[in-house]
Each structure stands twice: as C-alpha cells, then as structure tokens.
Write a structure and sequence with these properties.
46% of the residues are buried. The chain is globular and about 60 Å long. α6 links the parallel β8 (152-157) and β9. α4 (108-120) packs across α5 (136-147). Helix content is 35%, strand content 22%. The protein is α/β, with parallel strands linked by helices and 283 residues long. It binds 2'-monophosphoadenosine-5'-diphosphate. 2'-monophosphoadenosine-5'-diphosphate is lined by residues 133-138, 157-159, 162, 184, 202-205.
Length: 283
Amino acid sequence: MKIDGHTRLAFLLGYPVSHSASPAMHRAAFSATGLNAAYLPWAVAPAHLAAAVAGLRSMENLLGANVTVPHKGAILPLLDALTPEAEAIGAVNTVIPRSGRLVGENTDGAGFLLALQEEMGCRPEGLTAVVLGAGGAARAVAMALAQAGSPRLVLANRTATRAVELAEHISSHNPRCEVTVQTLHPSWRVSQVPEIRLLVNTTSVGLHPGDPPLFDYDSLPVLALVSDLIYRPAETPLLRAARRRGCRAVNGFGMLVHQGALAFERWTGNRAPVQAMRDAVER
Ligand code: ATR
C-alpha cells in the first residue's frame, strides 16, 4: 500500500478493534479498485469518542469511517445528520463526510438482507422469522426484516424486558408487522412458533466453545432457514445442529462483507469489489 500526500483516510472506531476483519476487507477493496486510500483501526475508549469525532471533522482527506462496539449508539448525537436507516435502527455503523458534515448511516440491516438474498436466495416477504437477541445487531436485523415485508417476527431474548422494548420499537416503525416476544432459554422449542421459516441468531452465544444451547436445537423445523451472525467460528453449534436437521444454514460472513461493501459504496460512489472483499475476509 502506497501512502502519499493524496491518500484518503478511512477509520474503524471501536473499543477494542484488534479482532476486526474490516481493515483487511477494505484494504482489499481499495487495492482492487486502485483507490489511493488507507483504512486504519482506531481504538477509542468511550470517554474519548467526542474527541475522536472532532478529529474526523478536522480531516479534509477523510474518506469515511466505520463504527463498531461500543460506539454505535453513543456516536449518534455527535453527528450532523442521520440517514433514515440509521435513524430507524438507532445506531450508526458508517460515517460519511458530505460537504463538511458528518452523516451517520447504518448498513448492517441492508447488508444482512443482501447476504440472505445471495446465500439463501430468500427475501423476507411473507416469511415468519424468529430473531434471537435484543441488542444492537438484533435491532438492525429485526428492523430490516420488518421493513422488507416479513409479516410476523418473534423476538426471543434471555432478558424478556429487552425483547419487549425492541418489539415496541419495531412495531412503532412497522405497523403491518406483527411482533411478539419470547423468553429465550435452552429448553424452548422453536417449533412452537407457527410457520417459522427463518431463524437468525444475533446473540454472542456460540462464540465460545462450551456455550450452552440457545434453545432446544432438536425442535428446529427441517424447512427453516438458519442464519447466525457469528462468523468466527465459521460453524457454531446452532449452525451444526441446523445442518444436521437438514436446514439451510449460513454464518455471518455474508453480512460482514455486504455491510462493508455498502459502506465502501457510500464513501466512494463506486460499486464495491464484493468478491475481493469476501476473499480477504475468508483468508
Ligand atoms: P450486540 O449489540 O452485538 O447485539 P449486546 O447489546 O451486548 O450486543 O447484546 C447481546 C445479546 O446477546 C443480548 O440479546 C444478550 O441477551 P440479554 O439481553 O439477555 O443479555 C444475548 N446474550 C449474551 N449472552 C447470552 C447467553 N449466555 N444466553 C442468551 N443470550 C445471551
């Protein structure tokens, strides 16, 4: 990578940032498109987020930024404007400089839908879906599913009150989607959900060996499509169980790549080299 006086800069603001695949993915995108730009992980402790955003504002050669845990919500009031997606999700994963202003965007939900379409050939229209979790990732996925026409969503979370709050948020933005809530526990039988077609895990369960099951995996209907946002390990116990039951199952690589590709497109105005980005992440 050549850095000179014309290099434009992109950053990942997070804490920690050391685990992230985004630098490799965006480096591959810049290289494949011949863009003179660099993408740098920037570890920002929560107390310094405002200073970091002020730093972004001062940078006239800023290409853009990504935002990850724990700053996706905290950055909202520090920006000048939000896209409708970021506004609805209530979180920002991408910052776009526009005429001296910093605009907050969220490409997680759209990235999830693109991955679903690409890897499962599936659109949420007409599909009853179960979303496991009620954190930031669940918010993006549930909002995307509701906005893309899923008629029924079941939000299942260990802490039921968080699922209730999320359900109210999703319902208020999508009156045509019927949203219900379920307490998530290892003996819950997901087959109790009538006509379940899609199940998405947005929790961190499955990241570590020996994590307990999220629900009774033997209750997965054979026709269900199962998506786990976790990509390391590439096969979580949920995905393994789903495949054993004959379900189509995919991990979080696709969403990771597509949310990054959409960020690249917002920053540059050019089509993202999706395959090069995917190859970099898989390496
Ligand atoms: P993110 O923004 O990445 O979604 P988060 O806001 O910390 O992260 O949310 C993590 C999600 O994983 C939550 O839904 C959490 O459930 P609680 O709301 O009950 O905490 C879920 N989660 C984490 N560990 C879990 C476990 N051992 N069993 C079930 N759910 C778990």
